[in-house]
Automatic annotation (TrEMBL), chain A:
Family: Belongs to the GTP-binding SRP family.
InterPro entries: AAA+_ATPase (IPR003593), P-loop_NTPase (IPR027417), SR_rcpt_FtsY (IPR004390), SRP54_GTPase_dom (IPR000897), SRP54_N_sf (IPR042101)
Organism: freshwater metagenome
A single GO BP: SRP-dependent cotranslational protein targeting to membrane
Subcellular location: Cell membrane
Keywords of the record: Cell membrane, Cytoplasm, GTP-binding, Hydrolase, Membrane, Nucleotide-binding, Receptor
One Pfam family per UniProt: SRP54
Primary localization class, coarse: membrane
Domain SRP54-type proteins GTP-binding: 251-264
GO MF annotation: an example: GTPase activity
Record-level GO cellular component terms: plasma membrane
Protein name as it appears in the record: Unannotated protein
Topology relative to the membrane: Peripheral membrane protein
UniProtKB/TrEMBL annotation, chain B:
Gene Ontology cellular component annotations, sorted alphabetically: signal recognition particle, endoplasmic reticulum targeting
Source organism of this protein record: freshwater metagenome
InterPro entries: AAA+_ATPase (IPR003593), P-loop_NTPase (IPR027417), Signal_recog_part_SRP54_M_sf (IPR036891), Signal_recog_particl_SRP54_hlx (IPR013822), Signal_recog_particle_SRP54_M (IPR004125), SRP (IPR004780), SRP54 (IPR022941), SRP54_GTPase_dom (IPR000897)
Enzyme Commission number(s) from the entry: 3.6.5.4
Keyword Ribonucleoprotein: yes
Gene Ontology molecular function terms on file: 7S RNA binding; GTP binding; GTPase activity
Domain annotation SRP54-type proteins GTP-binding: ranges: 102-300
Lineage of producing organism: unclassified sequences, metagenomes, ecological metagenomes
Protein name: signal-recognition-particle GTPase
Amino acid sequence: MALFSKLFAKIRGGQTSQSDWAEIHDSLIAADLGAKNAAEIIEIAKKTKSDDISEAIFNSLKSWLSQNSRALATNSVRTTTVMIVGVNGTGKTTSTAKLVSHLKSENRTVLLAAADTFRAAAVEQLQTWAQRLNVEVVTGPVNGDPASVAFEAATKAKEENTNYLIIDTAGRLHTKSGLMDELGKVRRVVEKVLPIDEVLLVVDATTGQNGIVQAKVFMESVVVTGLILTKMDGSAKGGIALAIERETGIPVKFIGTGEGASDLEVFVAEPYLNGLLA
Amino acid sequence: MFESLSAKFQGAFASLRSKGRLKSGDIAEISNEIRSALLDSDVALSVVDFFIGELKARTDLVLEDLNKSTNPANAVFEIVNSLLIEILGGSARRIRLAKNPPTVILLTGLQGAGKTSLAGKLAKYLKDQGNTPLLVASDLQRPNAVTQLQVVGESVGVPVFAPEPGNGVGDPITVAKNGLAFAKDKLHNIVIVDTAGRLGVDAQLMKEAKSIRDVVNPDEVLYVVDAMVGQDAVNTAKAFLDGVGFDAIVLTKLDGDARGGAALSITQVTGKPIMFAATGEKVTDFDLFYPDRMASRILGLGDIATLAEQAKGAFDSDTASKLESKFASGEDFTLDDFLAQLEAMKKMGSMTKLLGMLPGANSGAMKKQLEQFDEGELVKTQSIVQSMTPLERNDPKVLNGSRRSRIAKGSGRQVSDVNSLVERFSQAQKVMKQMRSGKGGMQLPPGMALPAGMPKAPAAKVINKKKSRSGNPAKRALES
């Protein structure tokens, strides 16, 4: 375990000093776990015998992870529908492309819906990816109704019995209730044709404590089933994901680690937790 | 998040106020509360420690004097306020224009910070001030970033220099260099260079950004950062400062609800000021950054300045002057005027957000009311008025039982809803009459007449209604 190995080596040697605790606390804060969570971890660790502090911290972090399934939903008889949602600039379109690549490597057929009709050139961005990955994408007019694009795509996916339909939506701040309602409408309209199996909220690893509110609000409007944690190749540790899991029970399903189509990994708890504390 | 920060600040000061004479220990106590409030708002640890250290030093220094003042708690509050303003950069700073045009502005930042959208907003802002900006598309990495900049440029009527298609094709350094030459040739007085997003830890891309900087020799390098960023804000900002260097910061997505932390952290750690703030998806949602207004919002003093500006924007001057003259000439305030007000209010954005800018909006009771405020009420009220005939709108006295029941049917509401609207409206009318005759003694800004019949937030609604528990475990966790 890379768990502040130096510090723990020192603690094992003798008494844990006030400054050692402060150092652990600060590292947890620096990983974006949040002040309340960090304080709680310290409480738990203080109660354990000094030689298992490192294990105690690791285990309690682990116990905060969601118990929900981290596997991407799949349906063997009909099209599996996935909606990609999130605030602006977290990497929804790139994640959509990565997910396509991931599914294609498992020999699944995929249809894309470019339901981000708002941001300039978002449709073109998805089209470029679709071309690279050799999948079809359903588009609509600029500033058109995203729900109608999604509906059209769902109808097409159902007719052709595509394995997956992935709907890329426009970024929206969770504070814009009008835009959140629009997202709910996309969901409802698609459900007239196909059930929605998965709603993935894309969260940027650099996000601070605001991520929790984001997750809650998106949860309310479209019932999020999983997270994609992006930009994990940077210096941010993405501790907000653990805070979100603890608070909402929404599990991280994938992590994004680069700008290429193959830079998507299935979430694995141990390396993530070790990374938080490194 | 931001709201919770001001709520905590207010809570801390409320307990301080109850103390009267202050001791050193009281300051330590409030320091701890402020510390946790700042951490919860993503203010970087080092900055929190600095802030608390400064606060203690400054209050200790003047503790004697503080206790001589009539309200010591307020004096501490003032110290906190000025410290916030100081860290946020003092006064707003403007773009430095080059002595020999063109002025070159280089945009840098992480992926998804909002550089390309910002490029458009900045171009429009500068163009509206009489400049002739040129946008240069040096983000050749992200698929269709070039197209995005072209669309953005077109929408604000600013030309875009984009010789390369992007999507991995072309050299951003050459594009930037040629863009500058093009601007000189065509006499553009400002050049805005949009670059690809990059991570602070990506040494190769940081080197590329530096090379772009070296060829265009910018007058202002702007570091664009998402206001929702967490503790990593400091690391990344330092990486950019060391790698490319920057002169000022632009804070984007300030229309979200997380904004205290990043602003404080980055300015304090880098010593660079925040120059602009982007506050929405429209190209006009962009303004200079005002440290004092930001500090006020953090402390829950409200943001009257911004509120007044938004009101000015939403009430077109025609409607406002019509209302004013009506008011002056002693005409009755009618339901039609009321409807116009509702429309204007809706244009200003969500009521919750607007009311949130008022002083004290984040204190306990008021905040609860705000949270329970149903935005839909405005629409319901509007639909009732719209179901009335012109006669009824001009003279609500004609509203007898059968008219009311027709209106209720037409608007899909209950008769009781119609009754309560009419009741509240006639009360508002009375208030207006009193004010005109000078009895009210209340001065209202033009166009900001009383939001008559404004739906009140349900004061004593039972909050914990036993709802059906969701089948989704994640959602259920949220409900409890």
